[in-house]
Amino acid sequence: MKKLLLAALIFLLSMAEGLAQQPNIILMLADDLGYGDLSSYNPNSEGNEPNNTPIRTPILNDMAKNGVRFTDFHSAAPICSPSRRALLTARYPNRLGEWAEAYRSSPDGVVAFEDPTIGTWLNTAGYATAVYGKWNVGEVKGVSWPGAHGFDDWLIIDHNTGYFQHQNKNKDCLNRPMLFETGGNRVSDLEGRYLTNIWTDKALEFIAENKSKPFFLYLPWSIPHAPLQAPTSAPTTAFDAGAKSHTPEGREAYVTMVEHLDSQIGRIFATLKKQEQLENTLIIFTSDNGGMLSGNCWPLKKSKQHLEEGGIRVPMLMQWPGRISAGTVSDQPSIMMDASVTLLAAADALKHVPKDRVLDGINLLENSDTKREFGWRRRDWGAQGNYLRQEAFRSGDWKLLRTFKHLGNKQWSAEYKDELFNLKNDLGETENLVEQRPEKYEAMKTAFNEWKREVVELEPKYLISLRDQLGSPANLPDDIVMDFKSTEFSGKIHKAKTKELVSDPVNENGVCRVFVKANATPPLLHTGMEVDTEKYSKLRFEMKITGGATVGAGRVVLRHTGWKGEDVHFRPIADGKWHEYVIDCTNSAAWSQWTPQGRIGVALPVPTNGEIKVELKTIQLVPERIRDAQSIQPTKEQTSIKWGHVGEENSVRKVVSTEAEYNSHNRHGPKTFYHVPFTNGTFSLSWKRDLPQKMNLVFETVENGKPTHLFKVFVNGTPNKDITKTDIISCVTYEKIPGSKKLKAKVKTKKYHAEAGKWHTTSVTFNDNVVTIRVDDVEFSVEDDRLRNKVTQCGVGHIWGTLETKDVTITKN
What we know:
The structure is a single chain. By secondary structure, the protein is an alpha+beta fold. Helices cover 14% and strands 33% of the residues. The strands form seven sheets. It has an eleven-stranded mixed β-sheet, with helices on both faces. Strands 31, 33, 34, 36, 41, 42, 43 and 45 form an eight-stranded antiparallel β-sheet that branches.
């Protein structure tokens, strides 16, 4: 066996000559296969009993002999879904948002028009594309199913099912097969057939149909993931039957399943060879994460679910006759997204990736970088909690592992233990070098923090509704109980024993729709949520009831712990029109007893006869202190203006200035200052500009007895004198320069343009050291310790032309 740098993988032909004909590409992904399960990685079947029994995989062994075997290849996560998100997008799952660091998904999953995948780019490059296997990155037709991601043909499960009975315990199953084909149709006539065989048959048909066109075949197998059902089991085997993991019986089933996978891969190789396509096919085989409890992860520590090497270091084989030297062994540090970028490069499809799209992999056919850096975060979240379990960072041979203290009951504290390992000398992660190498430890922590700042998306399209033990997401709006902007209903519905009388919720254009028939138990739309009951006192929503029937009472569902609590009744109006409901939650004893395990929502009314359609818009908490909001009037006692021409009509304040005045005042526009001090609170207003130029807000404080800038917001502009940049919102914080009275500005921007001639709303909320800015529907946050200072005055300004303002309000927290 030869141990070579990756540059030596290119064999016989130059890349220019090799890319003259696009290769076929087959990407195969095992599910929960251990690093030490294949004899090419563990020829003597070393490891712990009962998981050290040998597995015969002659096809995969030949693949290692005929191509390259990577010994330092990693999944992007220690669990299924995040690693598959990474493989398809060629990006860390963290770039989707912290929600994607866990198995659980956002309601829409990986949205194709926001986060395109390798299927789309290869399809654009002229490839026929297909996926047969476990999809696991989103299940919304036209949004996140394979068709939206560039796959021409597909037969998938979204989550693991039984191998013979293609069902699972998901609430949508209802004793039906969870196997779906191209177009989203449910497949019911394949029950009793082994899943792996079904997908292999589809793969062979696809290869035969595309003899004259380059193809991309993605095979994300579900094998050998539990349930541990060997192909020799009875076709009637229940979907959830199977041997227990980490038992001799479980290992025996596991071995049989992996050997069967090898035989099915052999059928694919045989077909390629028979059709004379093998020489022009790039084939990649790996696993989505480390081995499950019946897998062999030798010589690594731990297994799936963990960020020790056993959970993330996986087998990786790559074969391309005539391009990759046979028998190559590579110790190139590499990660899941490298496979994605490599196949895009081989297909000459990288040119179809938008230039501003960051991909987190490298082309393994060309790159031999051994000083690479990787990061991982292991998270669990759901209705009852949001917790970081582990984090890890790799730089060269060094690895930093951070493990948060487990409190039991699926909860983790903010307390953690750091470990530092040199993997070159200690692959089993047995010697913690934190104390022996303090300078390396500090450098690794600094580098990891930089990685997180660069990679982890803290302002994603979808936010986890509960903060984790470290306080993230800091910009979480804590007033939204349920909104219906997503195409998938993200809350829960409880129908009791009258399920046939209540439809499933459907979201469309920000409205949730449910049909309710007479005699139904009132359906509960609810979610788990930690509520600040000192801050909020009411629940607000809009509801429309159509159907013409008389309806019973509605209820605001308030259960402080689990299902314990007391609801508040209200009288709904069923006239086919939208009505606003504001319900005082303090009328329920549950409000003062609220816990993080509380449930909140709305019980829908039930008609006395027939059927009604109930529609709901955002369910939102209303703060008690909104009654303390102070409407700021443009009086001499409360405001001042540096210069400009001021008028008022119908409660609209109008400030007019000219370009000549702007230039004569050293290129500064007029500002109206509102003198209402507050520490935590919200400054909000509506405004309209006659020109597509910037409007700015300035917030000042007092330091050392003198007024000084605290924070600025520029809508349609930047803090500098450039007035042509009108498509961004800029936020400016200020940092003290040691030994100087001057402040250093720090700018954060977000793309947005507020159209001239129209009214816009802007709010700036100060909460401790975080400021949240909202312009119309665009929202983002900044964090800085100086923001804890008291705001002494707020200025509203523009450059020249006309600025109209109204509804200027300060809400003090």
